[in-house]
Specification:
The chain is of the alpha+beta class and about 210 residues long. The chain contains 8 helices and 8 strands, in the order ααααββααββββααββ. Strand 3 and strand 4 form a beta hairpin. Helix 1 runs antiparallel to helix 2.
């Protein structure tokens, strides 16, 4: 009993330190991989605490190594947009301009009943009310209801100096249009831009680094 209490106390302190190292993301902000990694770490800690025949410090080294891998992947995701898409996943448009995108539903293995249930949990009881519905990488559904004089879905087109070509194409805009909009704002280079967003009225919002 004493051995279990000691292992539990040590495990609690070490786990607290490791969680602080990973960061302060809320549960709703976690992607699927990070969420599952948290479950794996918790299961490993439970086995270490309850089974006295497991070498405590060797097992803790395994937990620390797993946490290190997760942190390394998150750091790489910060620097590489392609890896970020692989690691975090990408938002999927399920309703576009008031129409259900059936191919996207099939890709995400959802049916119409799943979609309407997700809409209702967001206080939306009719597809006809929706302009865009986007399934986020953490599983949440973001909804933009129909608005008068809205030309575009507000969309990020530059992130940390890099153009998001896929989003430009989704808006039927070109790099030439983006270059012109940036020049009008007297910004010399796209590399200076931290965040650029096409707003619903078609104007470009920019924040430099």
């Amino acid at each position: 009993m004493i051995a279990i209490l000691i292992r539990a106390s040590l495990g609690f302190v070490i786990l607290l330190v490791l969680v602080r190292i990973i960061g302060n993301k809320q549960l709703g902000q976690l992607n699927v991989f990070t969420y599952i990694s948290g479950i794996v770490i918790g299961s490993m800690m439970g086995e270490i605490i309850l089974h006295g025949n497991i070498d405590f410090w060797r097992a803790m080294l395994g937990v620390a190594f797993w946490v290190g891998l997760v942190i390394c992947m998150e750091i790489i995701a910060l620097k590489s947009m392609k890896f970020r898409a692989l690691f975090d996943g990408q938002p999927i448009i399920l309703i576009k301009k008031g129409k259900i995108v059936y191919s996207a539903l099939k890709k995400e293995r959802l049916n119409v009943h799943d979609l309407t249930m997700m809409l209702r949990t967001n206080n939306t009881f009719s597809v006809s009310e929706v302009d865009y519905a986007i399934l986020e990488s953490n599983g949440d559904l973001s909804i933009l209801k129909k608005q008068a004089n809205a030309k575009y879905l507000p969309t990020i087109v530059i992130s940390e100096g890099k153009i998001i070509i896929k989003n430009l194409k989704e808006l039927n805009l070109t790099e030439s249009w983006l270059d012109s909009a940036i020049n009008e704002l007297n910004i010399k280079s796209k590399e200076e831009i931290l965040y650029a967003e096409v707003q619903k009225d078609g104007k470009l919002y920019v924040q430099c680094k």
